[in-house]
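tool_call: predict_structure(chain=1)
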Amino acid sequence: MLVRRNRFIFYIIIFLTFSFTYAQLDSKNYLVRTINSEINIDGISDEIEWSKGKWESNFWMWRPTDSLQAKKQTRFKLIRNDKYLFILIESDTDGKNFNTPNLKRDFSTYPTDYLTLLFDTFNDGTNAFSFATNPIGLKADGLISGGNQNYRTDRNYAWDTKWNVATQINENSFIAEIRIPFSSFFYDNSQQFWRFNIYRGNTQINESSTWIKTPQNQLIGNLAFMGKMVFETPLEKGKNPISLIPYLSSAAQNDFINSTSKSNISLGGDAKIPIGNAL
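tool_result:
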């Protein structure tokens, strides 16, 4: 029994060491330049401010194999001003046919064409903010917990916040231009960097790819496998993001015996206020 227990502990140590080493070897840094102007979010990267950002690419496959670079590459730029984080993403494609089962917010990314961005603003490898879009500019946002190791329990899409995305579909690529207010994040402004990753689903060739190389035995988007977005200038003091979600409900009743009807309309809302770095 003791031998079996020691063997189990040995395998756990080997697994954790491999995962840590794998993540460290493939860590990448991206310098987020600061601008003093705005960018019009229209899916067209014609503003001169985008020239201050450097294209980053070299995405790795996650499926069907995790040992090769992606056949269809993805490129991105990050820049910011004092209020917003701007992201420009260009994804190579085969033509203009994409899989989009529905037009709902917080759409399911499986099985669709999509891009997901993860921001670990406290650099703890446990919690993160998630933003996703697709070639036609749908939006999905959520909170990540538990290191994003289990897609059933570690992803909360009940959280919604304000951000903007516009896309443009070209002959052999699509472009996504994104603006996220810093007020949508919860962060410590003393941090000089955030851990960050982008991953993509491509149904045209059944390929999943990720900026940070991730082994197949780990969930794509696992927070153990992330790069860093390093801020050129210090961030302004962060504010707790407060999400206000209004709702409107109505009900109608008909009394066919007395020939009367009654309608009720209810207006209300939910507020979500984080009180710690557990998001």
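agent: The chain has one helix and 15 strands. Proceeding to next step.
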